[in-house]
Amino acid sequence: MRVLIIAVGSRGDVAPYTGLGVRLQREGHRVTLATHALFEESVVSRGLGFHGLPLDTREEMASRLAAGGAGGGDGLRVTLAVNRIVAEHARALGEAIVAAARQADVLLLTPAGWIGGHVAEGLGLPSMGVYLQPMTPTREFAPATVTTRSLGGWANRWTASALLAAGQRPFRAAVGELRHGLGLPPVKPGAWLAGLRATRWPICYGYSPAVVPQPADWPEWNHTVGYWWPATDQDFRPAPELADFIAAGPPPVYIGFGSMPAADREALSALIVAAVRRSGLRAVVSSGWAGLAPAGDDVLTVSEVPHDWLFPRMAAVVHHAGAGTTGAGLRAGVPAVPVPFMVDQPFWAGRLERLGVTPGAIPFRSLSGDRLAAALTEATGDPRYRERATAVAGRLATEDGAAGVLTVLEKIARG
Q1: How far apart are CA 250 and CA 284, in angstroms?
Q2: In the sheet that 203-205 helps form, which strands lie side by side, from edge to edge?
Q3: Which pairing describes strands 49-53 and 222-224: parallel, antiparallel, or unpaired?
Q4: Residues 17-26: what's their mean pLDDT?
Q5: Each residue's pLDDT tens digit, 201-222
Q6: Do 53 and 97 form a contact (C-beta atoms < 8 A)?
Q7: What is the C-alpha separation between 33 and 41, in angstroms, rounded?
Q8: Maximal CA-CA distance, the chain
Q9: Cβ within 8 Å of residue 67, ≥6 positions away
């Protein structure tokens, strides 16, 4: 089948689907990834088809969230802010998805690419969800993008349902125009979501049940299948200075915040240097979208280095607790120090704490040199964290997240 994966968002929202796409192609499907121009090279270099979507996520999302204080800890506020940014491009996004979908047999939709569900309906194509965060309402926990505290069983489920409907409201005008152009009748957000549930619309969740066990009250057409790892770059060779730095002493720690913005990159860089020196460790620091640039004999700043190569060589990993980076650290079997900024990151940081692979999360708004140094000292000095991380990594190595997606695709192909 001709499979179109629609991935909207930052690098962490796109990279796992390169690995999923490569696996689907290996099984005989032809895969195109519709995403932003920023990620075209990483898609095409893996042998996948590429179709461009509007919105420069690095320029618009990172800069605007930084200006708005994205690290402030209000998960709901930031979630809605991200949603509004995407909604501003909804008309162009819908048009681009329609153009791509006309060359597809089935659509795989990521959470921010849900507008593709209307396109699939209009073109008479089957579709399914491929999500990196738990989105289906459940009594077991509150929405991952809002809070880490349980609101109580009924309230957890109600809040998640309300959030799904509320997230569609900024898109109403664009969706109305899109549906009209496709010859579809207008529909209210709640009614559309109810229609998906009535048709048993399948969703595969790309994280391990060892990290988030599937809730008992989820419907049978929701499947927690395991991680989809970003496609390996077979041509990657570490820069000589990186290889030399790692070899020059005991394993360093990794510090990086991925696509997260920083209102004051100089201050954050200085904080990192202070923490590394107080802990007596060495560090490889990823500059990321924040443009971090700490300097010193015990610190090496790098740009993009594949996590599957770098993380196993580290003594611990400090990161923003994005879904993909959290999984990469667990896969590598190394202790973690999560520093969540916003949206679903506190949720994943909490999962790391439950697994016992971290001495505890440090919310970005509370980050200081002393706190980071103390966490690094504990994470690298207490062998129990690595032992637990190694055990989780062993579990993840037995899972095949793409297999669950293939099973659903086979059912779709059979009609």
Answers
A1: 12
A2: 49-53, 30-36, 2-6, 106-109, 127-131, 203-205, 222-224
A3: unpaired
A4: 96
A5: 999 999 999 999 999 999 999 9
A6: yes
A7: 12
A8: 65
A9: 263
Q: What are the C-alpha distances in Å from 269 to residues 230, 295, 333?
A: 28, 8, 26
Per-residue CA distances from 23 to 11, 46, 236 (Å) = 19, 11, 19
Helices 75-87 + 90-101 axis angle, to 10 = 60
Q: Would the pLDDT of 239 be above 70? A: yes
Tokens of 314: 């580290």
Contact 306, 236 (CB under 8 A): yes
Does residue 130 contact residue 109 with C-beta atoms inside 8 Å? yes
Dihedrals phi, psi of 224, to nearest 5 degrees: -90, 105
Q: What share of the chain is helix, strand, coil (3-state, %, to 5)?
A: 50, 10, 40
Using CA of residue 392, residue 397, residue 398, residue 404, what is the dihedral sign?
Answer: positive
Q: Domains, the chain, ranges and CATH?
A: 2-227+399-414 (3.40.50.2000), 240-396 (3.40.50.2000)
Q: Which two tokens stand for residue 317?
A: 């990993």
Structure tokens at 210: 């060892």
DSSP H helical ranges for 88-211: 90-101, 116-123, 153-168, 172-181, 189-198
64-68, 190-194, 351-355: least confidently modelled range: 64-68
**How many CA atoms lie within 13 Å of 164's alpha carbon, on the beta-carbon side?**
22
Q: Kindly state the average pLDDT of the residues 361-372.
A: 94
